[in-house]
Amino acid sequence: MLTASGNLCRASRAARATWRGSENCGPEDGGLDASGLAGLGLNGPAQARIAQSLTQLRQQQNREMVPEILPTADLSRKLMCRTVQCGVGLQATYGLMIEALDFCWSSRAEEMLSATFALHRQEIQLLAGLLGGKALSDMASPTPGGIASLNAQLQTIVAKSGAPGLAEMFRLFCFLIAEVSSDVRIARGEVAPAEGEIEISDNNMQFFKLGAETGQPVIFLHGLVDGIAGVQRLQSQFRTGGFRVYAPLRCGYGQSGPVPPVECGIDVFIDQLESLIERENLRRPILLGHRGGAAFTHIAARRLRDRVAGAVIVSGVTPVRKMRELSALPGYSRMIVSAAAYGPGLMPLAVKLWARSVRRNGPMTLLRQKSRPAAKRADCHSDPQLAALLQASHDLTLHQGGAGLIADAHWVVSDWCRHIDGHSAPVVYLHGDDDQVTSVERLQQAMGGRKNVQVRLCRDGGSMLLYSRPELVLAALEELAGT
């Protein structure tokens, strides 16, 4: 905060660290200290606008100044400048407050603000100009009605936003824009989601947090090869839908603990799952399982039936028990599952060969499937932004040399269906009618006659519904959230 004379009277630690000028330099010392403002990243025209505001303040003008957004050398940072009153009555003094707003205006931001607050194109253009650093007076020149018309538009926008004032509205909009930008970066794999860790006994579990800060909790149980990529790319949709998503990594993946004995794997994971529910105070979370995580998801829905709202299992892999069922698997999956079934000692070699294949052919090979062409899946497979996300998840999978994948493959070739007998929380299987990894017949045979279990077939769907038909997954989550 600057006094009307241009002195620095208050500053946060971050602002004081960048302020390069003298704190006692005012008009009597030759004017406002430009070096201090330059340290904040303000260029000459922006500094001139601040100097003009201070001049008007000293002349007891513009005390009801409309907050201005000033550009800086950093394109992702703007500074909001406004007058503030200190004290009341005759003892009141006025200063100029400068505060940072970190955001990047984009077409995505325009769409979000327009849809959220019902802003029309003219209002969006006004916001784009102001948040881009233009002065209201400069924007008023070519506008019919001049500055009075723009002020009226601003008050309409403030009313639509529900904010108590213009400064608060700017803060709200910039926060939401920054949130959208962060969601996009997470969904593209440019940055990792927020993470945490659960410790139980001598083991630990790493988990990631996605989606909304509050709302219906969802726990994602990943498959064997693509990790959390499938839900990470839905970051924006989860936030918009009000889903608070937790994505724990099982033992042997990422920075979770070492793999326990195979026969104890599910018991250890469900213990960790219970600890996650308790620590994060999750009330009736929905389990969301993907592909090879089907066994863990369904068994957890059975054992935690009173603590969870249900489970959605997408493209679930049922136990492979016959040689002919292996022939339908893609090459790398067939190699790993064959080793798990007939030569467990060869599993480390199979995983190394698979990892080499991914390095050679690129991470998009993780989505490869044997199925007839379909437009929806082609769109998914041709998404260039998905490659970086898959690569990050693949690295998590192999962080411990693929130990988790090797352990989990045991449950792909073992009859885990005996663990889901009896009463369970509702379980919904979303399955593509063209899924060549687990055929519809095999899934229906495994789940036929079980109470509280539904199998929903998705037309023209392969084994990657989480990527190609996410709207079906979100609809199923919403359905369970409403029960």
The low-pLDDT segments are 24-31, 373-379
Assembly state: single chain
Number of domains: 2
Strand share of the residues? 15-25%
Structural class by helix and strand composition:
alpha/beta
What would you call the shape? elongated
Major sheet strand order: 5-6-8-7-9-10-11-12
Q: Would you write up a description of this structure?
A:
The protein has 483 residues and is α/β, with parallel strands linked by helices. It folds into two domains: 2-182, no CATH class; 193-481, Rossmann fold (3-Layer(aba) Sandwich), CATH 3.40.50. Helices cover 44% and strands 16% of the residues. The protein is built from 21 helices and twelve strands. The chain has helices at residues 13-18, 34-39, 44-58, 107-117, 121-131, 136-140, 146-161, 166-187, 229-232, 235-241, 265-279, 294-303, 323-326, 331-342, 347-361, 375-381, 385-397, 403-412, 440-447, 465-468, 470-481; strands spanning 2-3, 68-71, 77-86, 93-102, 194-200, 203-211, 216-221, 243-248, 286-290, 310-314, 427-432, 453-458. The strands form two sheets. It has an eight-stranded mixed beta sheet, with helices on both faces. It has a four-stranded antiparallel beta sheet with strand order 1-4-3-2. The longest helix is centred in the middle third of the chain and has 22 residues, at 166-187. It is elongated and about 90 Å long. Mean pLDDT is 87; it is low at 24-31 and 373-379. Residues 217-447 form the Serine aminopeptidase S33 domain.
